[in-house]
């Protein structure tokens, strides 16, 4: 189940790819186990206990939560406070997060707490790791977080299930957390003062979702470039639009990279077929300029996401070494909110680009000699066959919905919780939006990929056709092995869904 090197949580940096590998069950999770590290974790928890014995005032430990921080909690009630925190936050609604998303959330929370400045016990870190290892997944409703004071409501489902309450998914079944604990011979955790707050008062949901979104966008960028190359062939486009000297005059690195990928795919160094047009329409000619914005943005998006991922983002911060309690606002998810609002706009532009390419493919006014709607039907049956006509309508609908969702969530801050949380990030909504835009754009990509392959197949049947460049020939044959060309009309839903499965698996090896 875990053929690759395990991911170790502790003092080392965690990359987006490690979270994605954990989310996809390709690696196992380990906890740093040297004595110095274990002592550092224990020191923070001991320091909290010392403060309790001295009746120190600590937010969320000896006080109420949020605007109730002015309410003192007597020592006899301190032990009950964590259970109350996750209990009253058990009000999430909407769909449940899918299994990979829950694993990413668990990984993000474990990474934050493993810094050793959250005042939690080693046993809590071990149990989070065990949830990942045994694939015990809290059932987390995705709605209910404003993304400041952290993802309180969704993360309450993590705190509660660690404590043997609420429900989890285990071995493909919906089970009570208490039952799963009994089956494994575990004692549910009794959360210590600050531990429920440490679990919940952070950005793990938005950050986990952001890791998944980044990975999907990275693959989508490469796939959209490959689809564009196929469409240059299908539409008899002008490959000189991607000339290296041309891009030296406007050297945005990502844009230059996309153009280089297109040159590789189209084998531009080889003898070129005769040109049919001086300039193609923008959805071909400007593809590096559209896709290049996403390519150039991935670097700073990674920086925002990985900095948040590798941060302690709860409140208060417990410095066990200097024996200080630092009250602040690291639960605010502004960087993730901005990253996800930006990503969804970048990705929706990819949908729009591919949708325009598909519109060219099906239209005899613009497809330079391909059959109407890419139908492969013989002439005597052409009048009753409509090929990819409805697929193009569907792609237009998916594109429109993706574009509609680009309204930034981060500008819709709402004052909540008796005006204590009076400025919030909306980062979790932005991350959910980004994943929905990715889902819609992958649907457009699936439609345009199948149509592009049909166009290349149709073009190869024409007398003046030329041999495909090697990379595209390999891709074309791989697609033909799984997707039969459309000759007589057939319902294409199954083909589209299978293509989406392959995209989700990152099945096709594309550009380095």
Structural account:
The chain is built from 19 helices and 9 strands. The chain is elongated. The model has no long low-confidence stretch (mean pLDDT 92). It folds into 2 domains: 7-202, Fumarase C, Chain B, domain 1 (Orthogonal Bundle), CATH 1.10.275.10; 210-504, Fumarase/aspartase (Central domain) (Fumarase C, Chain A, domain 2, Up-down Bundle), CATH 1.20.200.10. The two termini are 26 Å apart. The chain has a 3-stranded antiparallel beta sheet. It has a two-stranded parallel ribbon with strand order 1-2. It is mainly alpha-helical and 512 residues long.
Strand content: 5-15%
Helix/sheet category: mainly alpha
Oligomer: single chain
CATH architecture of the largest domain: Up-down Bundle
Distance between the termini: 26 Å
> What is the tally of helical segments?
19
What's the arrangement of strands in the largest beta sheet? 4-6-7
Per CATH, the class of the largest domain reads Mainly Alpha
What descriptors fit this protein?
single chain, 512 residues, mainly alpha, Fumarase C, Chain A, domain 2, three-stranded antiparallel β-sheet, two-stranded parallel ribbon, 19 helices, 6% strand
Secondary-structure blueprint:
Elements (H helix, E strand, L loop, with lengths): L6 E3 L6 H8 L5 E3 L3 H19 L21 H4 L2 H8 L4 E4 L2 H15 L8 H13 L2 E2 L2 E3 L8 H11 L4 E4 L2 E4 H8 L10 H6 L3 H31 L9 H5 L4 H14 L15 H4 L1 H23 L7 E3 L4 E3 L7 H29 L26 H16 L22 H34 L9 H13 L10 H12 L8
Parallel strand pairs: 1-2
Antiparallel strand pairs: 3-5, 4-6, 6-7, 8-9
């Amino acid at each position: 189940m875990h053929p690759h090197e395990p991911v170790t949580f502790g003092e080392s940096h965690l990359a987006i790819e490690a979270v994605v590998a954990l989310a996809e069950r390709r690696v196992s999770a380990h906890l740093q186990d040297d004595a110095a590290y274990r002592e550092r974790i224990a020191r923070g928890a001991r320091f909290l206990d010392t403060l309790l014995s001295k009746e120190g005032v600590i937010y969320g430990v000896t006080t109420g939560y949020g605007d109730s921080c002015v309410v003192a909690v007597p020592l006899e009630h301190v032990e009950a406070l964590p259970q109350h925190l996750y209990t009253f936050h058990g009000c999430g609604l909407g769909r449940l997060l899918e299994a990979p998303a829950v694993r990413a959330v668990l990984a993000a929370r474990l990474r934050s707490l493993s810094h050793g400045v959250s005042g939690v016990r080693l046993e809590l870190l071990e149990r989070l790791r065990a949830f990942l290892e045994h694939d015990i997944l809290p059932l987390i409703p995705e709605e209910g977080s404003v993304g400041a004071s952290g993802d309180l409501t969704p993360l309450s489902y993590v705190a509660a299930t660690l404590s043997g309450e609420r429900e989890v998914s285990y071995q493909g079944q919906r089970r009570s957390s208490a039952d799963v604990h009994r089956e494994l011979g575990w004692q549910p955790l009794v959360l210590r003062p600050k531990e429920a707050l440490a679990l919940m008062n952070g950005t793990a949901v938005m950050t986990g979702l952001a890791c998944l979104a980044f990975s999907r966008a990275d693959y989508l960028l490469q796939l959209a470039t490959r689809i564009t190359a196929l469409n240059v062939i299908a539409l008899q486009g002008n490959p000189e639009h991607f000339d290296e000297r041309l891009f030296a005059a406007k050297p945005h690195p990502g844009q230059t990279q996309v153009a280089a990928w297109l040159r590789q795919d189209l084998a531009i160094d080889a003898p070129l077929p005769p040109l049919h047009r001086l300039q193609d329409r923008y959805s071909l000619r400007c593809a590096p300029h559209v896709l290049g914005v996403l390519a150039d943005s991935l670097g700073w998006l990674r920086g925002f996401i990985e900095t948040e991922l590798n941060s302690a983002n709860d409140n208060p911060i417990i410095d066990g070494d200097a024996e200080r309690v630092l009250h602040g606002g690291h639960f605010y998810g502004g960087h993730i909110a901005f990253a996800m609002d930006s990503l969804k706009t970048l990705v929706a532009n990819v949908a729009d680009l591919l949708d325009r390419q598909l519109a060219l493919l099906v239209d005899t006014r613009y497809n330079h000699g391909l059959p109407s709607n890419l139908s492969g039907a013989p002439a005597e049956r052409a009048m009753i066959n409509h090929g990819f006509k409805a697929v193009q309508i569907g792609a237009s609908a998916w594109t429109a919905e993706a574009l509609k969702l680009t309204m930034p969530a981060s500008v819709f801050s709402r004052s909540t919780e008796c005006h204590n949380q009076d400025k919030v990030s909306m980062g979790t909504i932005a991350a959910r939006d980004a994943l929905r835009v990715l889902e819609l754009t992958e649907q457009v990509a699936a439609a345009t990929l199948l149509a592009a392959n049909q166009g290349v197949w149709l073009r190869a049947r024409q007398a003046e056709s030329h041999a495909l460049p090697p990379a595209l020939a390999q891709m074309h044959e791989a697609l033909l092995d799984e997707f039969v060309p459309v000759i007589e009309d057939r319902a294409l839903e199954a083909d589209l869904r299978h293509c989406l499965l392959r995209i989700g698996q990152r099945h096709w090896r594309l550009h380095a």
